[in-house]
């Protein structure tokens, strides 16, 4: 009390000064908020174009949202490269020829490359050997379902012809309609720019689980927008209806159980004759099992970090590895140097790749061994345990490696899955040896030279020269027709 009486004047001045500072700061905050609101209001009030319906051309959206559009255009920049891949073209089969054997009898054995940015979605599906060389709308190995994740023209066409009708057509049937790469309309409502779920398969998967996707939080939607495509899926029934196998859960075991009960297989392996499952890219599922998702982060938090211009805060739509912008991604939460953060990421990836290398070596050996057993007269009853193990081993391997960011998104779960794959690969080899021994065939089964992609493709019987010749003819004769017609119909600028 005596202290107060003695210093009353000083304390009052301090209180007064502090009040002034607080009021000043609150004024700045209010001004900033008002400025931001004004800028946002101005942004919507001064739209250059009115977008109605499903506008597939992202350049039209760019008239109203230039900041986002300019960063989206950078998805065409394929220069970024980290220790393990990046967003540039990379022939994975050339790097890992065992994968040719693993996918023998399936289109991925012909062609598989590391993914590039969204800007290349259309070009890359033209170029891949997996879509064949259809010279008419009725030809080709793939259904229209293969377009599902490549373009905002897909929801537009679904709205025009119906979802089921879209799926059951051939891929080539929509060559002059699906022409714009992944862009604004895939994820946004043009009226308010809210995140929009444009692919029915995701909403349908939620519904079968008893969930209402419309009740998702904004933070959830910042991942679910990606989950429209970056997931495991299959083409159900003769109508090739796009379906997410989540009914029993999103773990590798839950989806395997779903497929086993349904009696589904993507193809029969050309060498081992095992009924196989091909994992697509279960990025969302594995991300959900990792530490970042479990702490409430979304895909966009790391792959679309915020940028600011004046009072405007917006998401960077380059959609690239977080390692390109560590200062705006990792370092917003982790108070560590760029060098250390990179070291941690590469350590996770290296450990996963160590197991992956072993799995691909042993699993390919098991498929070759199964062929050797068949060639020596093994019967279906003898081979049944082998085929079951091969299916399970490869499903786990594919689930882990087809999700391109799995080694970082969920390193522990990914290592667990690969470890189980390796175990089942060894078990398959032991079963093959038992079969061979029972038939009086002694010694190890012979291994072919599959040290390069070309040698592996020759071993499984692919005529790559013919496949490339047909694809070149398709690209030179059919693709220009598609592009010309799309421009004529103003589908493409």
Explain the overall architecture:
With 493 residues, the chain is mostly helical. It has a domain at 58-335 and 464-488: Flavocytochrome C3, Chain A (Flavocytochrome C3, Chain A, domain 2). 53% of the residues lie in helices and 4% in strands. The protein has 21 helices and six strands. The strands form three sheets. The chain has a two-stranded antiparallel ribbon. The chain has a two-stranded antiparallel ribbon with strand order 3-4. It has a two-stranded antiparallel ribbon with strand order 5-6. Strand 3 and strand 4 form a beta hairpin. Helix 3 (58-64) packs antiparallel against helix 4, helix 16 runs parallel beside helix 19 (411-438) and helix 17 (380-402) packs antiparallel against helix 19 (411-438). The radius of gyration is 27 Å and the shape is globular. Residues 29-36 have low confidence and may be disordered.
Question: In brief, what are we looking at here?
Answer:
This protein has 493 residues and is mostly helical. The protein contains 21 helices and 6 strands. Strands 1-2 form a two-stranded antiparallel ribbon.
Summarize the topology.
Layout: H1 2-6, H2 8-45, H3 58-64, H4 66-73, H5 92-95, H6 98-102, H7 121-127, H8 153-161, H9 163-168, H10 200-208, H11 218-227, E1 234-236, E2 241-243, H12 252-262, E3 267-268, E4 275-276, H13 283-288, H14 291-294, H15 299-303, E5 306-309, E6 312-315, H16 338-375, H17 380-402, H18 406-409, H19 411-438, H20 453-459, H21 464-488
Antiparallel strand pairs: 1-2, 3-4, 5-6
């Amino acid at each position: 009390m005596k202290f107060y009486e003695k210093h009353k004047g000083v304390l009052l001045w301090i209180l007064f000064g502090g009040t002034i500072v607080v009021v000043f700061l609150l004024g700045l905050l209010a001004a900033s908020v008002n400025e931001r609101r004004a800028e946002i209001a101005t942004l919507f009030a001064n739209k250059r174009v009115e977008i109605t319906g499903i506008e597939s051309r992202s350049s039209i959206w760019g008239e109203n949202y230039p900041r986002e559009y300019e960063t989206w255009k950078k998805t065409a920049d394929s220069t970024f490269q980290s220790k393990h891949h990046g967003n540039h073209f990379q022939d994975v089969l050339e790097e890992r020829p065992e994968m040719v054997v693993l996918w023998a009898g399936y289109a991925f054995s012909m062609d598989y490359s590391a993914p590039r940015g969204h800007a290349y979605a259309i070009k890359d599906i033209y170029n891949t050997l997996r879509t064949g060389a259809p010279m008419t709308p009725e030809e080709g190995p793939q259904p229209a379902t293969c377009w599902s994740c490549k373009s905002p023209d897909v929801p537009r066409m679904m709205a025009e012809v119906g979802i089921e009708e879209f799926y059951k057509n051939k891929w080539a049937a929509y060559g002059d309609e699906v022409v714009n790469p992944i862009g604004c309309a895939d994820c946004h409502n043009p009226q308010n720019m809210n995140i929009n779920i444009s692919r029915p398969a995701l909403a349908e998967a939620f519904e079968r689980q008893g969930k209402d996707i419309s009740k998702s939080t904004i933070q959830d939607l910042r991942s679910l927008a990606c989950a429209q495509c970056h997931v495991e899926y299959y083409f159900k029934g003769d109508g090739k209806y796009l379906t997410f196998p989540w009914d029993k859960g999103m773990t590798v075991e839950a989806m395997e159980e779903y497929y086993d009960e349904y009696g589904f297989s993507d193809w029969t392996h050309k060498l081992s004759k095992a009924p196989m499952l091909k994992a697509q890219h279960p990025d969302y599922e594995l991300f959900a099992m990792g530490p970042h998702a479990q702490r409430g982060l979304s895909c966009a938090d790391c792959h679309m970090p915020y940028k600011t211009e004046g009072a405007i805060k917006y998401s960077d739509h380059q959609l690239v590895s977080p390692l390109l912008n560590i200062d705006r991604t990792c370092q917003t939460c982790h108070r560590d140097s760029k060098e250390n953060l990179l070291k941690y990421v590469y350590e996770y990836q290296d450990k996963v790749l160590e197991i992956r290398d072993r799995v691909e070596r042993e699993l390919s050996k098991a498929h070759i061994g199964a062929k050797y057993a068949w060639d020596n007269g093994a019967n279906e009853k003898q081979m049944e345990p082998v085929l079951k193990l091969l299916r399970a081993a490869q499903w786990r391997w594919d689930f882990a490696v087809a999700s391109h960011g799995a080694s970082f998104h969920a390193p522990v779960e990914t290592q667990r899955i690969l470890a189980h794959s390796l175990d089942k690969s060894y078990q398959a080899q032991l079963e093959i040896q038992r079969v061979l021994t029972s038939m009086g065939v002694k010694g190890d089964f012979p291994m072919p030279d599959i040290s390069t992609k070309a040698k592996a493709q020759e071993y499984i019987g692919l005529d790559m020269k013919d496949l490339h010749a047909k694809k070149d003819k398709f690209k030179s004769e059919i693709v220009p027709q598609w592009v010309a017609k799309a421009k004529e119909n103003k589908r493409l600028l």
